[in-house]
Give the backbone structure.
Amino acid sequence: MRGQISLEFSLLLLAMIVVVLISTITPGLYGFKKVTITSYASLGHGALSKLKTNIEMLSVLDVGSKKVVYIKSPPGIWRIEDRGITFEGEGFEISTSCSVNLESDNTEYQVENLQVIRVHLEKVDENTIRIEWE
């Protein structure tokens, strides 16, 4: 019985070959730029979700409460309007609305490269959260 391999090892080897093929074919089928845009959109969605979650948590605290949030942001523009936050990147736009009013001295904040940004949140009154970008 020399030179034979077990069925489990054969299946494991076959699974690894399939994974390698799929991971190398996907960028080739859709193009590297499309895969990058999709990755940035996914990262942007996560960043927007994290910011909204922290705003909503701060909204139930006392007036004067502050919070610093670190967000891994892809390149794009963050926009603050009344109760809405929009993140616009290359080839996608993601927006959400909050239950409180938002104010900022800089209603448009641009991120040039993939980086971690620091956002200061402060509850100004019962219905307003102030956002300061760094």
In short: The helical segments are 7-30, 32-59.
